[in-house]
Amino acid sequence: MSDKTIRRRRAVLALLVALSLILLTAYFGEGHGGRLHAVQRDFLTVVSPIQDGANKALKPVRDLFGWFSSTLHAKSQRDELLKQNNRLRRELLQHEGDERAYASLRRLYHLDDELGASAYHAVTATVTGESPELWNRTIDINAGSGSGVRENDPVIVGEGLVGVVSEAYPDGAQVSLITDSGVGVTAEINETGAVGLVEPKVGAPDELVLQYLPATANVSQGQYVVTAGTVSSKDPSLFPHGIPIGQVSSVKEEGSSKAVDVQPLADLHDLETVQVLTYSEDSAAARASSFAAQEPPGLNPGGSGAGASEGKLASVGGGG
Known about the structure:
Layout: H1 3-29, H2 35-105, E1 121-130, E2 138-141, E3 154-157, E4 160-169, E5 172-177, E6 185-189, E7 195-201, E8 204-214, E9 224-227, E10 244-254, E11 257-264, E12 273-278, H3 284-294, H4 312-316
Antiparallel strand pairs: 1-2, 1-12, 2-5, 3-4, 3-12, 4-5, 6-7, 6-9, 7-8, 8-11, 9-10, 10-11
């Protein structure tokens, strides 16, 4: 760029600065009735209607952008609160279970904790299909025996138990949900340890019932129901202890036993990603699974007291 062009631009800039200073000095030096003030008023009179019209025309656009921003923020807050709620629920269940376990530890000397959740490896899988049937509730997932998934493996989401692997293929598996008519899970009231059998509720395909509880069991609405698991090597279970299943919604007496309605914690109609709890070949869970597979139908491998006639326990495992 030539020196002449640079000097010309500098001169124009200096002229504009000087003109601005002169106008500002004249504007502030004159009264409210001066010419510069009159020009300003005339300009605002012309521009104000245009500005108001533009504001009104653009208001729906601003509102739309504001709505999107608020919605995204609300969804983000909702997801974060759901995560916190799940974490706090797990901590509550763990705390209640620890209180009961502490009392038992003072009387027991030979505990077998091989079936704790830490003995399992979680395989994450995507749900690829869902059965439309009302009572035979199953889903298909894209993880199978090639990923270590076996029949009878428990399947969970962040809220808790959703089902059990009923068939495993090399590249996928079928999962029977806990509301499937062929599924039964040995479970307990988390606060008291009272053991029973969780099954789908007849006539209510989205609800569960915890049956065969002792008649003297102290159960109240709102208590959590979890998988029973085991702390005794003579009483194996295919599920680790303490997986959340649901909350007690109502209590009813049935002669010598007690049954309670249970509302599942997991949303079984909106499953996208699940985790399968797998185990190694030489683990206690593997021995329990092998034992369950060898038992004739109708026998309870766990001896949980939920009723040996409930043959479903032999297929889904849970030993109290």
